[in-house]
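Below is one record:
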Amino acid sequence: MRHAGTLPESPDYLLLTDADIEYSPEALRNLVKRASANGFVLTSLMAKLRCESPAERALIPAFIFFFQMLYPFAWVNRQDCQTAGAAGGCMLVRRDALCAAGGIEGIRGELIDDCALARRLKAHGPIWLGLTERVRSVRPYRHIGEIRRMVARTAYVQLRESPLLLIATALGMVLTYLGPPALALFGDGTPRILGAACWALMAFAFQPTLRFYRLSAWWGFALPAIAATYLLFTLDSAWQHSRGRGGMWKGRAQAVRSG
């Protein structure tokens, strides 16, 4: 980035991307067109994650599903809404806006650096986040343990390392995702009917993500079990932070232990 600033003609845009990302031939050109036509200071695409191994097929679509619940794309893309998010695998940024926002140094201490950068840049102009098949991650997650480590690295940071938020999140996920199937399977009368209806609606809400990954619609009814797995990952994230091993990445603990 420093080198780009020393060029005779400094570029208007910088592409921040990961080494495990593949781009289709026209993807970057279309990204620049979208950014320049709309004046976006940040244009980000959530790469389509690899979904081939049994662990990936069971858990990766839900990762996208839950991300979109945390950062609704429609809210991110509204300038009058404070919600800001980005996908670090593919971020096209205006160089002048990045400099005005403090550059990369401004997010040096952030573990969830892509969303932290999005928050800073949204103060300097409109941002946009989308989902695409033209940008793909080739990073494999062959076993559940690898997905657990990916989620646990940042889950507790997402909750601001707050025990109260952790408890509230755990209760919310139990009531939302485990309560309905429990009522449907073990309840009686009206509670059973309501539980089954909520379970069906939950499965229905998951369908667009399943279609994106070309998976069977029946995976929707497994969402309670998948959500329970992500809850365990989140609890593990909190446990790792309490041991001073939060944000483990490339053999190093990235998060600062609080207290």
